[in-house]
Design goal:
alpha+beta; three-stranded antiparallel β-sheet
């Protein structure tokens, strides 16, 4: 890929970052796994494919999937 994706975490109208709060609540090992998959997403975008990204049927949403003992999903 020539151009990396820019990953921006959702911020609600009050300025709160619920996704970041969720990620911060994870154990350090899980945080590292999420960060690794986010780096892959930056590099390859949705072309990263399964098991890391999946389009949600009937929507325009994609989920970032962190597989393992703790299956983590981020929209």
């Amino acid at each position: 890929m020539d151009e990396k994706w820019k990953v921006i975490l959702y911020r609600n109208p009050s300025g709160v970052h619920p996704v970041q709060q969720f990620l911060d609540s994870l154990e350090i090992k899980a945080q590292a796994k999420v960060q690794d998959v986010i780096e892959l997403l930056r590099e390859f975008g949705i072309h990263l494919g399964l098991p890391h990204v999946k389009k949600l049927t009937g929507t325009n949403l994609w989920e970032l999937r962190i597989v393992g003992g703790d299956s983590i999903r981020v929209l």
